[in-house]
Amino acid sequence: MANYCYLTFPTTYFVLRAEVVLQETNLSFKLLPVPRSISSSCGTALRCSCADLDAIKNALQKAAVEIEGCFELAEKERPNRPVNRRKKMES
Amino acid sequence: MKGNKRNLYFDNAATSWPKPEPVYGAAEIFMRQMSGNPGRTGSTRTIEADRLVYQTRAALARLFHAPDPSRIVFALNATDALNMAIKGIIEPGDHVLFTAMEHNSVLRPLGGLKKAGLISATMIPCSKEGATDLDFLEKAFKPRTRLLIVNHASNVCGTIAPIDELIAIAHRRGAFVLVDAAQSAGVLPIDVQASQIDLLAFTGHKGLLGPAGTGGLYVRPGLDLKPWREGGTGSFSEMDLQPESMPERLEAGTLNSPGLAGLLEGVKFIEEMGLDQIRNREMELYAYLRDKLSRIPGIELYSPEDPSRCAAVLSLVMKDIDCGELGYILESAYGILCRTGLHCAPMAHRALGTFPEGTVRLSPGYFTRKEDIDYLYGALEEIAALKS
User: Which of B23, B53, B67, B102 has the smallest number of CB atoms closer than 10 Å to its CB?
Assistant: First the structure.
């Protein structure tokens, strides 16, 4: 299981701005729905490896992209699947 | 000449046509492939839609030389943007200045606010050439003057307002300036920073060469407007008040993303061609059109002679014929499309001396050809000859 770091943002506008800024670097990242264990104002988060977190935060701060929160989660690479599917169908 | 019927479009001031080819398909591609609701958490499709909206915002920010794309707010059209600006900035008891060249999308909101007893308003007169009376303007400011509204280029006679000068005067007197760029965006150079523009309203379906149902408002950094519609923004969902973060603060509800896909292509076309090239071409066409029509006896022209002083919008009246009838003959007998009447700018027609009859308005665009103008000239010459 890998540890990933997640950045959350106040609005979608800042998520997309973050993407544009980071595409100019060679840092890896992915935009995806905010994991359920994190709450945030905007529902799209930016995921990266924790090793890159500082570099990413620097790049974003330089570009005046507003970051809301920073989280580290131990998580599988694929998003969670619903657990009680069969139960839902029976009821 | 009659019987040689064509379909020649001279109404670009109403809406531009044709569009650059990629504009048409962009809406379809969006709806087939990308359709996600931007700003709402969901799938990668949502993020694709978000990206497209962001790119359109960024392209417009480049075009208007705005350093921060978050200050470009999307709206339904220029009327929507103007209402958003006016109603977002004024407080009860304010005084508003506007010019005689303003469109009903400015005159009517001001009329309504006056009627409700919320504001007082003063019109700055314009000359028969559509030029703003700067002396009158200087004397018209009051302690409560909050806003000056100016039409960048008249939709009746094309005259370009000296916005840099007007903004300097207004700022010295402590008032904000709202520039109506409905006829100028995508045609005249606009630099919101250099010109110190506070608010710029624009529409997507005229000079920006996009589809109808798009447009927006530039709000300069540091200026906060009261939102004129409130609702979902895809963020801060637990709040029951509109959030403060721009641009979402002023953009509640689903955007016209298929439309914005088309608008992006329109703006990209302008970037590729170069604003200069588009402007030069339109000035060339305007000069050619005006020169030819000035030779027809019985026609009076109301737009400036010097093409650098106006957008490519030419108003005329033909002696002894109602402008509506002339427009009808031009279309039914010659296939030439234009717009007649008061063009939703009654005060402009008063200033020009064409109220209440109105004018025939011809507005060539970037795609208009010289032979179209030759044909139009032939048609008007024939009609004038028959009339006399």
Answer: B67
Domain enclosing residue B293, as ranges: 8-20+274-387
Start-end of H helices in A1-91 = 12-23, 53-62, 85-90
Q: What is the interface pTM, i.e. ipTM, of the complex?
A: 0.70
pLDDT tier at A43 (50, 70, 90 boundaries)?
confident
Look at residue B194 and give its three-state secondary structure: coil
Q: Is B41 on the interface with A (CB under 8 A)?
A: yes
Q: Which pLDDT band, with edges at 50, 70 and 90, does A78 fall under?
A: very low
Is B3 within the bounds of a domain?
no
Smallest Cβ–Cβ distance between A33 and the set B41, B70, B243 belongs to B41
Question: Do residues B129 and B194 share a domain?
Answer: yes
Q: How many CB pairs under 8 A join A and B?
A: 57
Residues B88 and B130 in one domain: yes
pTM here is: 0.90
Do B47 and A42 count as a contact with CB atoms less than 8 A apart? no
Question: Is beta strand B314-318 parallel, antiparallel or unpaired with respect to B299-301?
Answer: antiparallel
Closest CA–CA distance from residue B237 to any residue of chain A (Å): 7
Please tell me whether residues B98 and B196 are part of one structural domain.
yes
- Among the three residues B252, B273, B294, which one is the final residue of a domain in this structure? B273
Q: How far is B265 from chain A (nearest CA, A)?
A: 19
B376 plus B288 within the same structural domain:
yes
**Domain identity same for B238 and B289:** no
Q: In B, which residues are within 8 Å of A46 by CB distance?
A: none
The Cα B218–Cα B102 span in angstroms is: 19
Tell me how far apart the alpha carbons of residues B159 and B154 are, in angstroms, rounded to a whole number.
Answer: 5
CA distance B102 to B181: 11
| pLDDT beyond 90 at B239 | no
Q: Is A33 on the interface with B (CB under 8 A)?
A: yes
Chain B contact for A34 (CB, 8 A cutoff): yes
Tell me, yes or no, whether B227 and B280 share the same domain.
no
Which chain B residue has the Cα nearest residue A17? B54
Q: Could you tell me the pLDDT band of residue B196, with boundaries at 50, 70 and 90?
A: very high
Shared-domain flag, residues B258 and B376: no
B/e letters for B307-330, b = 16+ CB within 10 Å, e = fewer, are bebbbbbbbbbbeebebeebbebb
Average confidence score pLDDT of chain B: 94
Measured distance CA(B336)–CA(B181) in Å, rounded? 26
Could you tell me which chain A residue has the CA closest to the CA of B42? Answer: A33
**Contact flag B235-A41 (C-beta cutoff 8 Å):** yes
Residue span of the structural domain in which A84 resides: 2-90
Q: Does B234 sit within 8 Å of A43, measured CB to CB?
A: yes
